[in-house]
Design a protein that fits this description.
Blueprint lengths: L1 E9 L5 E10 L4 E5 L6 H8 L6 E6 L2 E2 L5 H7 E4 L12 H11 L4 H15 L14 H13 L5 E5 L7 H13 L3 E5 L3 H7 L2 E6 L2 E7 H5 L2 H6 L14
């Protein structure tokens, strides 16, 4: 579903932010993207969305990343931003949720069906007609996730999806992610959530892939994580040294 071949990107300074990334993600895989701050996680996601252009080859569902294919790729990929304020730009949650589907030509009836289905799944029916500027940060994070799910993309990218969530909403998001059939790439410092939702982990450090394998293998490797400025998930601390 996703393929990177020798992908690199540098800003004007010339120092690579990501360097020679090569990996592939199969359809339906759930992959955690981890690494310390500045490792290149957000840059990698922006490259995958065509928001940045680097060197090398990126392919999404057989489509090469280029200007001609970009509209089709973006219909296949939904992105939950780290900052919900940058994603929720309409007056109400409902208006945000229908914006994408309606602009893709879906009928009002089909759009409303999707909205009600997603809000019901997440237990957010009471947010449907709430104003975005009057809901809490955690509620806005949940609404942002609902907005992307309503578009039913084939691939979902999530940048820190558990940020600002209380324990109940965090567990709801985890359960929702686990049950989604789509291909998922989830960037997060919440390694417990990654362990709960992903079968595979890609570990980035200084823009390079230093580990790529089973989530339980990488997330239980204390020496590997500490060498890359990370710690074991909380659920594993105390019994594994």
């Amino acid at each position: 579903m996703i393929e990177f071949q020798n992908v690199s990107f540098s800003y004007e300074s010339g120092q690579p932010v990501v360097e020679n990334l090569t990996f592939s993600i199969g359809k339906g895989e759930s992959v955690g993207l981890i690494g310390a701050n500045g490792a290149g996680k957000s840059t990698m996601m922006k490259l995958l969305l065509g928001l940045l252009t680097g060197e090398g080859q990126i392919t999404v569902d057989g489509l090469s990343m280029n200007k001609q294919n970009l509209p089709a790729i973006r219909r296949k990929v939904g992105f939950v931003l780290q900052d919900s304020d940058n994603q929720m730009f309409m007056p109400t949650v409902y208006e945000d949720m229908i914006f994408g589907p309606r602009n893709y030509g879906l009928s009002k009836e089909e759009t409303d069906r999707r909205v009600d289905k997603v809000l019901g799944r997440l237990g957010l029916q009471d947010l449907k007609h709430r104003y975005n500027h009057k809901i809490s940060g955690g509620e806005k994070r949940m609404a942002a996730i609902a907005t992307i799910l309503a578009m039913e993309p084939e691939t979902i990218l999530m940048d820190e999806p558990s940020t600002a969530l209380d324990p109940v909403n965090r567990r709801t998001v985890i359960n929702t992610i686990r049950n989604l059939p789509q291909t998922k790439l989830i960037a997060s410092h919440d390694l417990d959530m990654i362990l709960d939702t992903c079968q595979r982990v890609i570990l980035l450090s200084h823009g390079k892939i230093v580990a790529d394998g089973k989530a339980e293998d990488i997330l239980q490797d204390k020496a590997l994580l500490e060498a890359n400025r990370m710690e074991l998930p909380f659920c594993l601390q105390g019994w594994r040294r």
